[in-house]
Amino acid sequence: MSETGHEDAETRGPGDAAKVSILEIFLTFLAIGATSFGGGVVAYLRSSLVTKKQWLDDEGFLAALEISQALPGLNATNMSVIVGDRLRGLPGAVAGFVGITLPGALLVFVLGLFYATNASNPWVNAALKGVGAASVGLLLAVTLQIGHKQLEHRLDVALVALTLVLVSFIHVPLAYVLLTVGPLAIFLYRPHPARPLQPDRSGLDKRPAD
Amino acid sequence: MKLLQILGVFSLLSVLAIGGGTAVLPEMKELTVGTMGWVTDAQFRDIYAIGQLAPGPNMLMVIVIGYKVAGIAGALAAFAGFFAPACAIAIVCSRIWNRFEGSPWRLAIQRGMAPIVVGLMLAGTIAIARTAIVGKDSEICLAFAAVVFIALYFGKKMNPALLILAGALLGLVFLR
């Protein structure tokens, strides 16, 4: 804890975080990484980190989730390094990351080996085609669950549509989209004394795809 | 040379992945299928599907793309490239984030980026749909996708993993 300089109450859980060992961080995230199937990893993280381990309280969890969502990278891996870092500094971050990715990475690698030698097997293709089709439904459901609030305001709908058209139909490279639409959107929502923004603390019911 | 290319492409994707894995799928497809020609449309769909079968973080599919290009070293390069930059950024930013506690710009950034992330996730959905719902079976695939969407969006607490597995089984029956 001391080496990260994060002693603020927001990130300290009710438990005594200073006593958490690197091995315990690794094993905790390993369990999350091995059991969180089909997305929705945020729910698994919360149940483990807040409810069972009490490394974070709800406020601290949402604060970490807020950072994870604002930065590049997957929520799951960002959460693993941020929480690991807060508990035990850099070694904790590495333990958290390796733990949460190891089970899935090994399985994907083994499946990938199998796929590489059976890429033209009709049974393999048929099963993966079915998974691909089901994934489209899953992705759309997750996107709308996260985004339904964004689709209620005209300005938001315009920004959603602009981004979608630039990326999917005009095929503008993502870097340019982020560097143009991003500042534009932030400017449109710039701080204004007449209409203060409310913090969006709805992270708990979100089910991000990763 | 190949390894450096893999590292470069996935590092770029890593720093661009604002809004998570789904948001960066169109760019990943553009770069790996289009620009680099490492995999075909159908392989991209297959590899994405393989990623969906594994627990843990989404997007572990990058390992399979790397493996296909340059074997085990390629798999490691893709994994490191895709995760190391974003993780490093996350650690640094989370250490300094609380200095901006209460800054109205923090909320403005969150508020402004939210619709962009939703747009990017829709684009990611479309990118997968364009590889997964094609060809002679496209009607059956579209029906699968619709059933899964309805079950997850309107159903209560349906486990997505079961629907993904059901997709594999139905594929074996209907899509051979």
Amino- and carboxy-terminal Cα gap of chain A: 27 Å
The overall pLDDT of chain A, averaged over residues, is 84
Multimeric organization: heterodimer
Q: Tally the beta strands of chain B.
A: 0
* Biggest interface, CB < 8 A: A-B, 114 and 109 residues
User: With helices defined by DSSP (H or I, 4 residues minimum), what is the helix count of chain B?
Assistant: 7
Q: How much of the sequence of chain B is in beta strands?
A: under 5%
The class by helix and strand makeup of chain B works out as: mainly alpha
How many domain modules of chain A? 2
Characterization of the model:
- The complex is a heterodimer of chains A (210) and B (176).
- Helices cover 66% and strands 0% of the residues of chain A.
- Chain A has 210 residues and is mainly α.
- Chain A is flat and about 50 Å long.
- Chain A starts with 21 loop residues before the first helix and ends in a 22-residue tail after the last helix.
- Chain B is mainly alpha-helical.
- Chain B is globular and about 55 Å long.
- Chains A and B meet through helix 1, helix 3, helix 4, helix 5 and helix 6 of A and helix 1, helix 2, helix 3, helix 4 and helix 5 of B.
Summarize the structure.
By secondary structure, chain A is mainly alpha-helical.
Question: How do the helices and strands line up, and which of them pair or pack?
Answer:
The complex is a heterodimer of chains A (210) and B (176).
Chain A: H1 22-35, H2 41-52, H3 58-70, H4 75-117, H5 122-147, H6 154-169, H7 174-188
Helix pairs in contact in A: 1-2, 1-4, 3-4, 6-7
Chain B: H1 2-16, H2 21-35, H3 41-52, H4 62-97, H5 104-132, H6 138-154, H7 160-174
